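tool=predict chain=A
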Amino acid sequence: MDHEALSAAVEKNFTWVELLKKEMGRVLVGQSDLVDRLVIGLLTNGHILLEGVPGLAKTLAIKSLAGCMKADFSRLQFTPDLLPADLLGTMIYSPENGTFSAKLGPIFANLILADEINRAPAKVQSALLEAMQERQVTIGDTSHPLPDPFLVLATQNPIDQEGTYTLPEAQLDRFIFKVTVDYPSKQEELTILDRMATSGSIAETKQVVDIATVSESRKLVNQIYIDPAVREYIVELVHNTRNPANVDPSLVPLIRVGASPRATINLALAAKLALSPRDAPLSHHKT
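tool=predict ok
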């Protein structure tokens, strides 16, 4: 596809982004950075790790996104006694015909909220890795594909550390973003209070885009142009995390492990989806 045709396709296929952000804005107060990153994660097949204290609308954000798309949504509360089967599913024996059949777990949804993911033990973390990376779950001797799109929004509480498990680097590497969610401003909190005082409940989002349209938009992402200078900058940035002494010797004790090639790919994908004030990708312009 040539440059003009691609520009026209991007202009046409990404109009839903602005509608989605406006619809989510009816429910969410502030949190525009979070919404932007949810959209980028959705369009790049990337998962997102949220860090923030309870009560900052992390659950509401992904539930609102699901409502805008009419997508399946599951909220999974991670606890120390959680088992992989509670997440993925298990084999069920039928005494009537003497056979086993797979009972699929709650992870089989388009949008997954993994609440307080750092409370889950290592076995559950390992089970989640296959789902996040391979987009499939193996139950018994059969692999079951997960729905498309499939986005994991994981949250962790940075304050309460009792009964938590540090996320392994292999899993952290599967997230395209780590987003720190902060408290709302005074004006935003007044708006939240006014909405709750008026209605007594939180509004729900309406569908503004379907999953098929999102899938078509995602196909265009790989075709968006990235200038060689930007590609070289991304690679240089990632390589400097592996060799921080080349930049500043004082950075050496601050970096334990450099970024993987997956970081290079994710940076490039996220750069393609830098949003303009009109919420259309800019990167298809050869600047």
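The longest strand covers residues 89-94. The chain has one domain: 3-196+208-272.
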